[in-house]
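User: For a benchmark we're assembling, each entry needs the component sequences followed by a predicted structure for the full assembly. Here are entry 17's components. Please fill in the structure.
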Amino acid sequence: MGDEGIKSALEIAMERISGLPELTPEEIAEQKEKEFRPLGEALASKYMQGVIAETEIPAEIARHAGEPGEIVRRAFVAFLCRSVRPDDPGAAVRALNGLCRLAGDAEGLREKTTTAWSRILDDFQKRKDKILLECEATEMEKLGSLGISGSALRPNMADNESLKNELDALRRSCEPELEKLRAVLLESLLGG
Amino acid sequence: MKIFDNFYIYLWQGRDNNCNACLLAGVLKGGRHLLVDPGHVRTPSYREPGLEKLAREIGRDGLDYSSVGLVIVTHGHPDHCEAAAVLQRETGALVAMHRADEEMFQMLGGRADIYLQEGTLELANGSKTGLEIFHSPGHSPGHVTIYWPSRKALIAGDCIFYRSTGRTDLPGGSHQALRDSIERMSRLDVECLLCGHPYGHPGFIRGREEVRENFELILSYL
Ligand SMILES: [Zn+2]
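Assistant: Structure for entry 17:
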């Protein structure tokens, strides 16, 4: 049998590719998004874990130019915006600092967001403490009905269902204010 | 073994290491009991049935161990709290301990329902039983002792034994903290002292003078 009767692997691959339809601009954009978004998220994750310092953020983002750079920046910003949550204040402050650093000299952004954040966190903490006290009191009542009471007791609330539900509801109730804060950040960092 | 009224002690008499336990009968609603330091389920070397033996002895006193409603563990070492995890699963008893020792209990499959801290513990079933909980670290970081002022009884766990003390070389142990804890307890008015182990002595000391002498001897060399 002669060589002409057998197709090489390369020829088969080329035939298959030529048989594929052309990608639409949306599909190309989607592919780029898929390729570069993880880079931005990985960068944000490294920053949040302390692998990258706040001062290094602008340079790290600037390493990606053009359209890929925009995707990386957007993914980085989105990741950090998601980290602005009152149940982990340490992470939220780190995220806010990172975002403000990336915004560079955006006028008054740090001051504006810090004020808004403090208000949200303060409100969250006060309501959280109240919920904790109420749920603990309910558990103490249950213990009381078993004949167990006293100042030496603190119920273990770690797996308490009603506490979990109450805290979930509290987190949800903070979302509108958090969304406003995130919108300010997004406008400053990604806005036209 | 009944000591007085509704106070029972169970002194470990096996070959292997296990702790002394005690029970306050019918002190909770529904006539349920408080059990302190149920010990090992099975002892580690000779595989002696610790919990089974304890349940049998409680039964011999005319009590039902499945009616235990609250278990207090003086600390998180397995020779004191392993069986608490079983009681929690099998009888629905609540387990109370200091937060600082919970990790050890979790390793045995348990989970504290109640964290103990310094303060009062009132048990009620018509009549009231008032106990005081002392945080007494040294042998372990979350060790607690239980004082019953109206009966001048002290459940000392592994803080104090007859003429000796609990060791301080295990994780979280502290010689100075143990000394401070023992010194504090020595100032209580105690006529009845239950130690955590029967080392060379059953581990139950009766009489104000005997208890005082034991404290003095320990503090003289500690
Ligand atoms: Zn111990």
